[in-house]
Amino acid sequence: MSRPLLVMLWQPPLEQTCLFPLEQKLSLLIGVLNRAYEIFTAHLKTVSQAEPHPTLLFVAPEHYFVGKHQNAYRRAQKQHIQAILALWSKDKEHCILLPGTIKWRQVALPNSIEQQDAIDAFRQIGFQYYKNLKRDPLQEPSWFYTLDNRTDRNFIFNTSSVFHHGKIYEYSKQTDCKDLNESEHQRATFRFGSQSPMIEIDGLRLGLEICADHDHCLLRKKIDESHQLIDIHIVQSNGLSNLIDAIACHHHGVYVHCDSNAFTNSLVLSFQDGKGQEHHCLNTEPENGLIWWQTHTKSITLCNEETDKLTSAFSAIDIVSLRPAVNVSENKQIINPVKRTM
């Protein structure tokens, strides 16, 4: 069944908003969300009642919610952010929100069960991370295998919160790439997320990645291992190009990348029979940092034997981009997409 989508990307000026107090960031975001919902409501009036009800997919880039000097928020602040946004989404049906990632810290008391559980979980995910990269964990930085000897017990996460009808779904980044600032490196450890990057909301199967996750083809590997299908592949990042080999939606799905640099990195591709086509956006509101597209995905249910055909990796010849400046890479070497139309 075809599912219509209104994909809306928000491009806030992160170099400015990173200096805002938390409440000012929330106020700015709520204002933008209200405007986005007004646009969505107006869009619904143009849709025939005979067609399936569209879904609004609102995505903001990585690191919208960080403190001054790129410091992590406290856990209580993270929960406050989530409570405010969950309340906003409660009466907004057919809306899926990913309003920027939250950098936050968890402090475990020394010698506590919570501390040891955190260390054990961190080590397990970390070993799998380096194994996926075909590297020996014991050859990695000393903090990885001597956690028990550390005096600090601050764990820092980079978490994407997904909101739908008042419910909250979480996914935390599973690859470490300059997520800690210089002062945090002295007293904290980046903690790999352990949640599945695949969730189902409103009948749509989403696959999530945060920045370096995409660079390491994390979701692509999960799809290959599980033989599952995802309708929409969502990437939130802060300065990352698009990696064709890492696109993991099925061959009738949608790829959505929201980066802090909208001009060169943000991209929305709709796939039909494995061919990815960038469409002209419906409209933009530069004063609000909003840009949106109308597209659709097919929800597909298949047995395992049939999924391989619909989840095989894409290549450069499968992608058609409208913008010469957009960064698309294959095998981690930046190339201009092979096929472009102006």
Automatic annotation (TrEMBL):
Gene3D superfamilies: Carbon-nitrogen hydrolase. This is Uncharacterized protein. InterPro entries: C-N_Hydrolase_sf.
